[in-house]
Amino acid sequence: MDFQAFADSFDAPTCILSVEKTPDDGYDAIRIVAGNRRYIEPLERPFMPPELYMPGVPDILLHKHTFIPNSRYEEYLPKDLGFEDICFRAAVRKIPIHTYVHMNNMNIWFDIFSMPLTCDNGDLCYCIYTAQPCSPEEVGISSSQSGTASEDVLKACIKLHSSNDFQQTINEVVDDIRLICRAEVCTIMLMDQYTRTHSVLSASIDENSSTKQVTEFSNFYDIAASWVDMIGGSDCMIIKDESDRNHIREVNALWYQTFDEAGVESFVLFPLRHDDEVLGFIWATNFDTTNTMRIKETLELIAYFLSSKLSNHKMMERLKQLSYTDMLTSLPNRFACSDLLRDAIRHGEPFTVVSIDINAFKSINDTMGFQTGNEVLIEIANRWRTIVASGISGTKDHIARQGGDEFLLVIRDYHSEEDVLKTIRMYESVLSNRLTVDDCDLYITASFGYASYPADASSTDTLLTYANAAMHEIKQQASSNHILHFTPDLLRIERTLEIERLIREALANDSISFHLQPQYDMAHKLRGFETLARLKDADGNFVSPAEFIPVAEKAGLIDKLDVAVYRKSTAFFGELLKKTGADLTLSINVSVRHLMKNDFFDEIRDLLKNSGVPAERLEIEITESIMIDSAEKALRCIDSIKYMGIHIAIDDFGTGYSALSYLNSFPADLLKIDKSFIDKMNVSESSKQYVAAIISMGHIMGFDVIAEGVELPEQVETLRSIGCDYIQGFVWGRPMIPEAAEELVFNKMSE
User: Fold this and answer.
1) Three-class SS of residue 268?
2) Which H helix or E strand runs over 650?
3) What is the pLDDT of residue 419?
4) SS3 for 332?
């Protein structure tokens, strides 16, 4: 390969790196093989003139160099174990890397991409390395390396910027970081360079840890001070294996001695800097080295926010707004509410949580449109907000929107259950006042189910589940009474709790699996497969998706379940396409909640990149209810996905929020007719004509049409006669394990 020509083809600063792998699964020399002009020029000239020297800038960056291809990177850049880890993972492990690096002393962020190359030569492995300067705002909002890392950082930052008890908050953040890193110890240490003293601001220590702590070393300030010179202008120090420890022994023998004495196997360290002053350090000891990149990103951003609180105030306010506020009603959202409940439980404060669902709200959306539905939700929120602000209920209240037409009320500072009922009735009564939208008078009711801490349950999740159970029970009764307190006779929800536990365990163990159901055209030619999530119970038996999917949605776990299924199914499908070259499509289902996440587009883009599935071979199935919360946001997201070349299918068509105007503007490729219509299709002529009308309407609007749930040969013939394009159902193929799907593809190709 002509590495120079390849590097020159990039506009961003880019080089080609070689990494020499060693027999012990490690690495030796890392060399800059070639680089484009935008990458090499900064290496050859000084970072700044001597008269503008900035303290802390590594000496190697202050001198002129002449670039020689295939030179060790240390000839031009400071030695950096974090940089080496990125190169090793990309070149040797063949893992695409996207991360952000902060050059502390120069206050510069770099957007880093490192992609594997498949032109290895013996022990020499290669990767592309691109480093593009970017702003802190871009890092804080758009980092896409890991949705989980972004959530971790967001949670820590909001805690730091919203608490009145700084020490307690720091302790909580350090506990969170240790758990994220799966480390034995996590520490924040402050330093005073003038008095040459140090103090541990906070430390979280695993109860089983045997490592020697900072306070047990009399000369620890001198050791910590030596870190400043070792890190230089870099953003961190990562020590994850024997090779890294040997490097520390060579460059800092004093530290290595204490390092070894303390029983440290791995160590990740970030300086806390502000206005060119090192305030201290944050580090994790004996961390999970298999997850180094996520840990680095999480700690890097937390360290940046921790030491730059004032300069990042504007961004933090925006992050807090996005994370804790419902965008439609401006009420607090379920995340804010969950934090409130956890805090009340932590302090042993009695409270009652009330689950609220607006009655017959679906009919408002169906008959008057989603915009009207949204205006109704806003007006309801305003009425309830007024009660909270005025304090007229006599109790301390907190109202939040959970999503859709569901709200949550938290009641505190009451003396009896009668006080609780009085407050709930006040929120119920303000709904009875006429609500006028677009000159239409509406009369709204709601169902209220409640559970109390500690009388009914002692955990947040259980209280919410019990309150929801009571709400659903009173809603089903359809009586004039709309309020119900949870009682033990409602414990049929135990099954729901058990399923939720199974889901959480499966996600933690990465044991969520998938089956594939084939789809065919009317000539029985294989079109592709739909991915279906599968969950097993403790005995190894499959739990029905009709049972565990709604539980996952209610528990807020559906997006994590989706991601697990997407990752596994696309990885399989990408390999299948490579093996067969078949012209097939993989359909994946996305929930409303998941699609509306801000990082969904980035998630899908990364999915395609990591799996190797071409965009045009992927199809995303969404339900019509996607428009219930925010049609504008949904369409923007779907348009972005379509622009990538991904196909869009409307699932369960005819069962939700269909309207001709909606379909006409919706950028779909395929309609899926729900099984309920197929079941009735051959029972009566009117049912058959209804299905025929859906097919005709879909064709008029430029959509292909697939019938799902087809189980009988006579249903196939009927669908063929009325012009259906595709079939999915037991009649031609049940859901199957991936190995059976692969065998099916090979058999079809050999016919």
Assistant:
1) strand
2) strand 647-653
3) 95
4) strand
Other C-beta atoms closer than 10 Å to the C-beta of 392 total: 12
Angstrom distance (rounded) from CA 541 to CA 491: 23
Q: Cα separation of 111 and 134, whole Å?
A: 6
Q: Is the pLDDT of residue 572 over 60?
A: yes
The distance from CA 517 to its chain's CA centroid, rounded to whole angstroms, is 27
Task: Tell me the C-alpha distance between 111 and 113, whole Å.
Answer: 7
Q: Do residues 431 and 446 make contact, with C-beta atoms less than 8 angstroms apart? A: yes
514 phi/psi in degrees, rounded to 5: -145, 150
Question: Which amino acid would we find at residue 717?
Answer: E
Label the pairing between strands 27-35 and 71-72. Answer: antiparallel
Q: What is the dihedral of CA 233, 237, 242, 248, to 10 degrees?
A: 50
What are the CA-CA distances from residue 490 to residues 354, 495, 562 (Å)? 16, 11, 30
* Lookup: tokens for 131: 């480093």
pTM for the whole structure: 0.41
pLDDT band at 455 (very low <50, low <70, confident <90, very high): very high
State the DSSP code for 182.
T
Q: Is 330 left (phi over 0), alpha (psi -120 to 50) or beta?
A: left
State the pairing for strand pair 27-35/185-192. Answer: unpaired
- The residue-averaged pLDDT of 474-488 equals 86
E strand or H helix at 558:
helix 558-580
Is residue 145 over pLDDT 50? no
Helix or strand (DSSP H, E) at 403:
strand 396-403
